[in-house]
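Exercise: predict the fold of this chain.
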Amino acid sequence: MSARSYLSLVIVGAIALTGCAQTPTENKAETVVNSAVENSQDASMVTQAGAVTIEWLDPAKYTDIKASSELQSRFQQRVFDTLTANLAQQVTPMLESNEKLELVVTNVDLAGDIRPTFGATLNDIRIVSNLYPPRITFTYKVIKGNQTMLAGSEKLQDLGFLDGIQPIIDRPFMYESGLLTTWFNKTVAPVLQGSPSE
């Protein structure tokens, strides 16, 4: 083998080794970036329906949005989507076309509590009782065009959510939806309609 051929092989080998050595570092950097993006997405989620927009701030710190029988991320998204849609159904008809309601939710405690079944069933179960009432904490504002018409903060809970006549059909997250729609009807709707809230 000539010296020139040998030198060429050495150079090619060095380049190949250098490329291999850099690949794990590049992959590691890429993983860190992806992880940071995922973490930033987990820190805040936004849902929108009709005239309602809700920012769910740092849901990992919420008191209880635990899933019992499905993937946690899917359950969490279902909670947020359902509460937004149910509130929008109540709110949107009462607002003018250039008005909207925005909430920033800082805590959610779903009605009930997750309990392990210790192998009796495949999944844990949520026990619903008055010992574990639904709670939601948030700030809100009603915006007309570029102006804020109404703003405030709320810490809602319903200690007697199981009292009275219960609906025959169990709707998903009906107690939490009830908290939000009752709050809107008592606090925000009277102001929009020009009468003082109770």
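Check your answer against the key: DSSP finds three helices and seven strands in the chain.
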